[in-house]
Amino acid sequence: CPYRSSSLYRSVYVYPNPGEIHNGWSAPMLSRHALANNGTVPPWPWIAVDDKSRTERIAHYDVGGVMDQYALEIVVRELFVNPKSCLRSADPENAMLFFVPYMPSAEFHNGRIFAAVESYPQSPYAKAVYDAIEGQYDGWEERFGLTSAYWKRRGGSDHVLVYSEPLHGLAHPKGRRGNYHYIHTQRMLRPPIAIGVEMSTAF
What we know:
It is a single chain. By secondary structure, the chain is of the alpha/beta class. It has helices spanning 32-36, 45-56, 72-81, 104-109, 124-133, 138-144, 149-153, 179-185; strands at 12-14, 88-89, 97-99, 159-163, 193-196. The protein is globular and about 40 Å long.
């Protein structure tokens, strides 16, 4: 393991996908909303898109295609969830970082090269993350079905989000360029930790 001497060794908690009991989808990690619904929430839409794209080698999995330049969210996720990863921790109480498995590019494109018109409005999941960054957690608990306790513990400063596209993130405004997206679309001037595909030298 190349990270054995790192402080992140076995120290990154990955929020579980809905129903992944083996990865921690159980009462301690679930929100009151999910528990009130027998531990269930609607499937996060990007999961099915990602599974289909991977199986058919399309969109972000089309190596050499237009979309593989936006595969950062897949690469970073794999770094944490791969069975051979030595970074992942199963203990949120002692984790140093929390990986939020939201995939904005996969959700936005929905398996297409060019996103459909209906993809441009802010999704309820993107809004839930946006609100959590602002310290409002109702959307996170309802849409993601997960406790907000760890967001609140350090104000999200130990949470990690990935943005695969420079002009998109938690919103998809048209006609905007440059640092607008770092400041507003991806909220990089405040916690959590934002991993982006590029940073402007004019920032």
